[in-house]
Amino acid sequence: MDYKKYWGPWISLLVLTLVMLVADRAFTGTILLTALLLAMTAKAILIAGTFMHLKWEHKGLIWTVVLGLVVVGAALFAGIAADGVRAHTMANRW
To answer: Is 32:23 a contact under the CB 8 Å cutoff?
Structure first.
C-alpha cells in the first residue's frame, strides 16, 4: 500500500488546525465564525476524500454520501433550531 498519498492531506489537516487555533486568538464575531466554518469544511472534504477513499470512488457514490450528509445535517438543525431560539430568547430576558 502506498502510504505517501496520505502525508499531504495529513499535513494539510495539521496546518488547518493550527490556522483555526490562531484565528481563535486573532478574530472575534462573524470573522471568526466564517474562518472556522471554512476551515472545518475544508477539513471534512480532505478527510472524506482521502481517508474515506471517496476521491477514488464513482461520482454516484460520492453524491449519495454528500447528499445524505446534507439531509441528515438539515434534519438535525431543524430539530434543535427552535430550542436554540427559545434558549436565546430566555437568556436575553435576564
So the answer is: yes
